[in-house]
């Protein structure tokens, strides 16, 4: 009976964690889009607020012994902090200037670019099956972008820059975790305030501080509440990702990620009346087929690797 109660309690925690991640991951896209569309809040300032709230959340977490911080030299994570600024700022600019469908599908291109970077500069090899899954992913993104009636050059520039910087950031995160022997939360705990300091120095060069559209402008109470809520949700996204992977498996997180991908796309068309043509729908299905194939083959390779290790004497 005790074992059954424990199992039921554990399952409830897992379901709770999945629901928090589902809510926060989808909500962050919609709330940011809402802030851009209805309030015109400055992009880089919103990014800075996300960084500050994330660091405050992590500070509370380490005080509650959820993780143990590790001292890191600033010079060894400066480029990582700069890429962190770039990836969040450019993805937010992409969201601001594109439909949610194009924004979501452009993010999918991060996987092919990471594979290209790791193959070219880190001499990492990938199986033919993995490489072939990139064909439907890329084709789907091209189809959606080409037939997007709200296509605009500036939005695609931001989306492209977002993919490139995000790919670099994710490659460097893995390299730095291995090099500095830290986990994701320990690294983010130092990245967030360093990235905040960088943004604090450059925001006055690109965005007004006072008046309409400035951080100290005449914002309504509802706008400020929405911005603060966005920061809290951004923190929940980061925290829930680490919790799910640590308490379930890569399979659960990946399959759950595909579900969120579909829900976010559908929500964009329903909430913001983003138009959807037949060719765009085909592009979305093509991309989703590529994502599922990539995940399937990647997990098979991981299982085969574990089997080979287990067979060794």
TrEMBL record:
Identify one Pfam family in the record.
Answer: TPT
UniProt membrane topology term: Multi-pass membrane protein
Keyword NAD belongs to the record: no
The transmembrane segments are 12-35, 41-61, 77-95, 101-118, 130-147, 153-175, 187-206, 218-244, 251-272
Official protein name in the record: Solute carrier family 35 member E3
| Gene Ontology CC | membrane
User: What family is this protein classified in?
Assistant: Belongs to the TPT transporter family. SLC35E subfamily.
Name the keywords, alphabetized. Answer: Membrane, Transmembrane, Transmembrane helix
Domain Sugar phosphate transporter: residue ranges: 23-294
Q: Which SUPFAM superfamilies match?
A: Multidrug resistance efflux transporter EmrE
Major location category of this protein: membrane
Q: Which PANTHER family match?
A: SOLUTE CARRIER FAMILY 35 (PTHR11132)
């Amino acid at each position: 009976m005790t074992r059954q109660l424990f199992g039921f309690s554990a399952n409830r925690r897992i379901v709770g964690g999945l629901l928090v991640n589902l809510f926060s991951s989808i909500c962050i896209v919609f709330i940011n889009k809402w802030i851009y569309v209805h309030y015109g809040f400055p992009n880089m300032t919103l990014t800075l607020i996300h960084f500050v709230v994330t660091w405050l959340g992590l500070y509370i977490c380490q005080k509650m012994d959820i993780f143990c911080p590790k001292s890191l030299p600033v010079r060894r994570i400066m480029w990582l902090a700069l890429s962190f600024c770039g990836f969040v700022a450019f993805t937010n600019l992409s969201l601001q200037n594109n439909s949610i469908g194009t924004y979501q599908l452009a993010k999918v291109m991060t996987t092919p670019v990471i594979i290209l970077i790791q193959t070219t500069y880190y001499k990492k090899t990938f199986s033919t099956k993995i490489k072939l899954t990139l064909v439907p992913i890329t084709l789907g993104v091209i189809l959606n972008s080409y037939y997007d009636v709200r296509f605009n050059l500036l939005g695609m520039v931001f989306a492209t820059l977002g993919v490139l910087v995000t790919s670099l950031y994710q490659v460097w995160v893995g390299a730095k975790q291995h090099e500095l022997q830290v986990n994701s939360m320990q690294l983010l705990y130092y990245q967030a305030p360093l990235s905040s300091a960088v943004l604090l120095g450059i925001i006055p060069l690109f965005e007004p501080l006072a008046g309409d559209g400035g951080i100290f402008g005449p914002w309504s109470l509802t706008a400020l509440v929405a911005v603060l809520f966005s920061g809290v949700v951004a923190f929940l996204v980061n925290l829930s990702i680490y919790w799910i992977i640590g308490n379930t498996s890569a399979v659960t997180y990946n399959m759950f990620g595909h579900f969120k991908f579909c829900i976010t796309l559908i929500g964009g068309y329903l909430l913001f009346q983003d138009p959807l043509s037949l060719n765009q729908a085909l592009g979305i299905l093509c991309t989703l087929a590529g994502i599922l194939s990539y995940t399937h083959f990647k997990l098979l390779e991981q299982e085969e690797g574990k089997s080979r290790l287990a067979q060794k004497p």
